[in-house]
Amino acid sequence: MFPNGSEWRRWDLHVHTPATTLNNQFGNWDDYLEAIEAQSDVRIIGVTDYLTIEGYSRLKHEKDKNGRLIDVDLLLPNIEFRFSPPTDKDTPVNIHLLVSPDDPGHEKLIAEALARLSWTYNRRAYSCTLAQLADLGRAFDTEIIDQRKALEKGVEQFKIDFTAFRDWFNDEHWLKANSLVVVSAGDDGLSGFLKQGGWAALREEITRFCHMLFSGRPGEREFWLGRGDPRDADTVRKLGGAKPCIHGSDAHAVAKLFKPDNDRLCWIKADPTFEGLKQVLYEPGERVHIGPTAPIFHDEARVIRSVTFDKTSGWFDDREIPLNPGLVSVIGQKGSGKSALAEIAAYAAGSWSTDELGSFLTRAGNNVDDLKVTLNWLDGRKTTVRLGDVQGDQGEVRYLSQKFVERLCSEDHIGGELVREIEDVVFTHIDPTETMNASTFRDLRAERTKNVRSEAQRLSAEVRSLIHEECVLRENASKVPEKLKRIATLNEEKTGLIKQTPKPATAEEAKVQADLQKYRAALAAVQQRIASEKQRLQRIADIRGKIQQFALTATRFSAELSVLLTEAGVPHGEHNHFKPTFAGDISAPLDKRVVEIKSAIVQLEGDANQPAEGTLRALEAQIKMLMAKESVDKARQQRIQAIQTRLAAIEAELGRIDAEIKQVQGPEKARMSAAYDERVLAYIGFFENLTTEQGILQELYGPVKKHLGSEAASKTEQELEFAIHWDADVEAWLQQGVALFDQRRTLPYGTFAGIGNAARTFLVPAWTSGDPTTIRPALESFLSEFKKIPAKDYLRVETTREQLLVWLYDVGHVSLRYGLKYNGADLEKLSPGTKGIVLLILYLGMDVRDSRPLIVDQPDENLDNESIFQLLTAYFRAAKARRQIILITHNPNLVVNADSEQVIVAKCERRQNGLPYITYVTGALEDNRPPDAGIKQQVCKILEGGSDAFKRRERRYDLEN
């Protein structure tokens, strides 16, 4: 009947006719009918009569027999009654019966039921029929002669007691099963009810008795939906729960037809049937809207109005399948072709993944190559493809295939793809002004954290550099005993050499030997001074090399910085301000120093022809001259020369070693202590830098966290939250360190397993605490055992102390981990089914800026019914208001409790050639055409096993209301 499913239509359920008995301002029927036919907005009319259906029957006759009102889809009998006691304004309480017109004999059944309703006046009972009501009028006013006047007076006086009315209604089983009770919520109803405390119970009973309320006031609607003050919500629950508010023009004149005050038009999302009207009882807030226009928020350019199949080769009918802009549920038995519709639509939209093994399109292969598919969009656009052609990449829908969801949510899935999907959704929640023109969340995160990540690398490198420096200094310190031993050896050798020096034969020879010893010592000193000056020349060469390296680095830095300055909008003429330069001329001081050093060397060496006293050349000449005066005994002369030369070398080495020891025990000892402190500070600095990165990430994820909090609070007690925390892969760290230790020896903490346990006890809590202040005490506690045993006693022979320290202070295994938690559990620890819930929440509740149609293929495969009912249905309800959802499912909770606007029933038969023939029947949940043609019956049959099976299960559950 209505294949598009539940759609917003304008209903006016309170319209009187020229047959109305009270306040009739219409005139003739022709003018009335022409006024209705002159409009096409109102498709459903509640034809209102006081105590009768006279006007309804006339209007129905005009439509059915005379072909009038062709744009009106449905006429409903609206029988208006008035109760005692009166309201504050002395007007009776108005109550209405909206009766189903589905039964062909409903007019007769209504008349018979009304005839059994009576009211007693002057000890005579008058039934609710036209004749009896006229008799009541004449009995009340004996002067009335005109039949119409008598009927008017009788209707005016027929004010039955509520309790009697309720008893009558409950006894009229057909009427009760086919009627909805509507009470006025305005001044002529509950709001105007007598306020005396003695009437409060009666007011409550009337409220509980009714199904709906007639009201167009926003405040009253919010109250009766339980959306106002929490105390009001308690009151509504006490009165039977939330009730829908409908509205009508209450027209008594042609000029008033379909024109309620303040443009409070009534829109109902349902089939234009009585069964459709009943749906508002189950969805009182979602299926009814009072306002100038229908609440349609979809982007028409992103709603598929229908899918057309052509050249199907017998697999399908060549036909157009209409699609509702809300939630479309596709159901069917296994192998019925449910997923086929989803895949074909996704393919036509350029969103189907070619690696979907086992899918319909993969299995069908080239059998459906000629099938032409057209997506007809709500804005009039068309997308036509042939399945045998290469798929486009336009991505006009978001397609979540069953395989895609299963892959992302599987137990063994690493999680990268799922994290990327999460991040893509997260990116949609960031204010466009905060995206820094990044195209993806990963790009934005990289941009925002670039500096802190660079700092993390610098700190890690600094730790390694300081370890190396400290190990060099420690190595130098470890050589001091050897150096002291060397000093003792040299002094011992010196004493021996002195004793071995031949005694001079004469006083003159003694003087020559003494002078030679003096000059040779002076020569050694001058040589050492020259060597020191040449060493300074090398340092200047090193400085020039460093400057050259820095210049290259500075050039690269300036080029990179210039790009950033340009992007930041800094004028090019100001870029020079940012170039790293030295404070002054650096060449002149170095050149000057080179000249000074070379001059000093020249002075120390002495002039080649006339060297000055004490210079290298002068000393060499003096030594040469004295050697000529030595003993004529050549052997003796050589022996003395060798001893004196060796003594001069010993003195030089003693001076050098003494300087080295003083350097180790002085500046280097202080530097070694400082290097240790700097290393620990750099190590802690890494964790402090993590805190900075964490702050940046929290800022990035802030909108998502806020949105998730509000969604969870408004929809379920189950909590979905975003979390950032410090993560440490201690097992990977231990695996790197195990190769350093000789496990045949006694290790710190006894064994390597003991080291691992200690790391888990001391380090892991600090590494993952998020608090940098815990790092140092934890590290000191862990290292205390390592300080009790020399490293050489437990390390492998080829392992150095530096390698041990690099491992101990490694931070490569510590990082920030960010993701979702569901009920306090990390995403990766959830079962596949629960991951599926999280994934759907992302697309339904968070992906609010993507208005493309969302096609979801059987997300309920691994989900339990409780989760679906408690959580997912709420998200489906919220998401379908802003985007079209096409859901392939076999779960009744999703179809019924998410209030699908349209249901498509897929069926598949096998032809004689073995190929399938797939058909689709579409309609709304409220479509209950007998016997089994209605959508409601087919939903029950496919999803519940049929009405008999459903009722048997219901009886076996035997749940209390």
Helix and strand layout, with pairings?
Layout lengths: L7 E9 L12 H9 L4 E9 L3 H11 L9 E13 L5 E8 L6 H10 L2 E4 L2 E4 L2 H11 L6 H11 L4 H10 L1 H5 L1 E6 L15 H10 L2 E3 L3 H7 L5 H9 L6 E2 L19 E4 L4 H9 L5 E3 L13 E7 L9 E3 L4 E6 L5 H11 L11 H5 L7 E6 L4 E5 L11 E3 L1 H8 L6 H13 L12 H38 L1 H21 L6 H62 L18 H19 L10 H14 L4 H82 L4 E9 L1 H8 L14 H16 L7 H9 L17 H8 L5 E9 L2 E2 L5 H15 L7 E4 L7 H16 L4 E4 L3 H6 L4 E9 L5 E8 L11 H10 L2 H11 L4
Parallel strand pairs: 1-2, 2-3, 7-8, 8-9, 14-22, 14-23, 17-21, 21-22
Antiparallel strand pairs: 1-10, 3-4, 4-7, 5-6, 10-11, 12-13, 12-15, 15-16, 18-19, 19-20, 23-24
Helix pairs in contact: 4-5, 14-26, 15-26, 16-21, 16-25, 17-21, 18-19, 18-20, 18-21, 23-24, 26-27
What does this structure look like?
This protein is of the alpha/beta class and 961 residues long. It has 4 domains: 8-117 and 160-290, TIM Barrel (Alpha-Beta Barrel); 300-411 and 832-840 and 853-925, P-loop containing nucleotide triphosphate hydrolases (Rossmann fold); 462-679, no CATH class; 730-812, no CATH class. Helices cover 49% and strands 15% of the residues. It is built from 30 helices and 24 strands. It has a 9-stranded mixed sheet, sandwiched between helices. A 6-stranded mixed sheet has the order 17-21-22-14-23-24, sandwiched between helices. A 4-stranded antiparallel sheet has the order 13-12-15-16, covered by helices on one side. Strand 5 and strand 6 form a beta hairpin.
Features of the shown structure:
15% strand, Rossmann fold, alpha/beta, 961 residues, TIM Barrel, 4 domains
